[in-house]
């Protein structure tokens, strides 16, 4: 069995505030092979983006990673010196942020930013770097790339800026891309074009991809596997087919029931009752129990992860629940 490109075990990221400890990521474990696409899904505030920031080493005080390991190509990223981590970012590991202005400098032209992103990691001529920038802009659907390269970020629409940010992530042919809801601001046509491009990238070059989203319809056609997060923890993971068609956690089933295409025409969408709990000093036990129709006394204790499916030998379906659903059983 080959060693996974990324292997995360017991990752916990906490924020130590005056009001208490916010457990943004708690005991998260998953692995990712080369060329594999992993969908990280859940409601806002479930810890998806913070998991990505933790992998990238972008946690600022009062937050910090308190436990766990992040093995990337055989090296624990938590042990790397800041300079070594900077060399990895943008080179072997790239991240596409939900807000493109977290990537783009508003006072520099796009060509300057893209050329510098290449030269920071490779010894090539500026002309070669410019040619590569032109190529990736075309791949993400930007017409007249030469003209756009001479523009400033404020001269782009929000969707165009996001496409430039995605292009920058593709510049150096990274081994791993973490995409934090990068297509939210894009129209359906461009979204489809970018999804097709990242799938081709994963297939042809072996680039691994973590796609963070709340849109199950996107990961259904993109991801090989899915991890479902709730209140900082992964509550279910498995192959895309297993998680979407044979969901075992009531929360996963609740997310699926809220997708319009899965509901009867003319009938109101089923909703998950209640609100996402505050991550500040979470009470013991299952964080979903107050919203779960399957909850019983034992849910006051924290459930362990258990295997519920045997459709995949390497990545079997697992769920963190005391009373997992049977395939097809409603939440």
Task: Return the string of H and E elements.
Answer: EEEHEEHEHHHHEHEHEEHHEE
How much is the average pLDDT?
A: 89
> How many DSSP helices?
10
Instruction: State the shape.
Output: globular
Low-pLDDT stretches: none
CATH class assignment of the domain at 1-80 and 224-263 and 270-286 and 298-325:
Alpha Beta
Report the biggest beta sheet as strand number plus sense, adding barrel if it closes.
Answer: 8 strands, mixed
- What strand line-up does the widest sheet have? 6-7-8-3-9-10-12-11
**Level-2 CATH architecture of the domain at 1-80 and 224-263 and 270-286 and 298-325:** 3-Layer(aba) Sandwich
Subcellular location: Cell inner membrane
Keywords: ATP-binding, Cell membrane, Membrane, Nucleotide-binding, Transport
Pfam families: ABC_tran (PF00005), oligo_HPY (PF08352)
GO molecular function, one term: ATP binding
Helix/strand layout:
Blueprint (H helix, E strand, L loop, with lengths): L5 E12 L2 E13 L4 E5 L6 H9 L6 E10 L2 E2 L5 H7 L4 E4 L13 H10 L6 H14 L5 H5 L8 H13 L5 E5 L7 H18 L2 E6 L2 H7 L2 E6 L2 E7 H6 L4 H8 L47 E3 L10 E3 L11
Parallel strand pairs: 3-8, 3-9, 6-7, 7-8
Antiparallel strand pairs: 1-2, 1-4, 4-5, 9-10, 10-12, 11-12
């Amino acid at each position: 069995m080959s060693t996974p490109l990324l292997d995360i075990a017991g990752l916990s990221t906490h924020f130590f505030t005056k009001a208490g400890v916010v457990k943004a990521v708690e005991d998260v474990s998953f692995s990712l092979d080369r060329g594999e696409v992993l969908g990280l899904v859940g409601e806002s505030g479930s810890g998806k983006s913070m998991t990505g920031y933790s992998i990238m080493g972008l946690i600022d005080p009062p937050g910090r990673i308190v436990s766990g390991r992040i093995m990337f190509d055989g090296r624990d990223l938590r042990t790397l010196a800041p300079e070594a981590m900077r060399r990895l970012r943008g080179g072997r590991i790239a991240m596409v942020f939900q807000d493109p202005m977290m990537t783009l400098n508003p006072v520099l032209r796009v060509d300057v930013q893209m050329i510098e992103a290449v030269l920071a990691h490779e010894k090539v001529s500026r002309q070669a770097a410019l040619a590569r920038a032109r190529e990736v802009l075309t791949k993400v659907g930007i017409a007249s790339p030469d003209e756009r390269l001479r523009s400033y970020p404020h001269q782009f629409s929000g969707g165009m800026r996001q496409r430039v940010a995605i292009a920058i992530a593709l510049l150096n042919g990274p081994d791993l891309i973490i995409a934090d809801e990068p297509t939210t601001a894009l129209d359906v046509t461009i979204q489809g074009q970018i999804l097709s491009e990242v799938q081709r990238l994963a297939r042809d070059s072996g680039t691994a991809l973590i796609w963070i989203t709340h849109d199950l319809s996107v990961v259904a056609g993109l991801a090989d596997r899915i991890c479902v997060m709730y209140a900082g923890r992964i509550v279910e993971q498995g192959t895309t087919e297993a998680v979407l068609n044979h969901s075992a956690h009531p929360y996963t089933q609740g997310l699926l029931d809220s997708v319009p295409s899965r509901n009867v025409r003319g009938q109101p969408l089923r909703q998950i009752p209640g609100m996402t709990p505050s991550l500040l000093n979470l009470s013991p036990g299952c964080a979903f129990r107050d919203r779960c129709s399957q909850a019983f006394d034992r849910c006051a204790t924290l459930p362990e992860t258990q295997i519920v499916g045997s459709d995949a030998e390497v990545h079997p379906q697992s769920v963190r629940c005391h009373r997992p659903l049977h395939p097809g059983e409603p939440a």
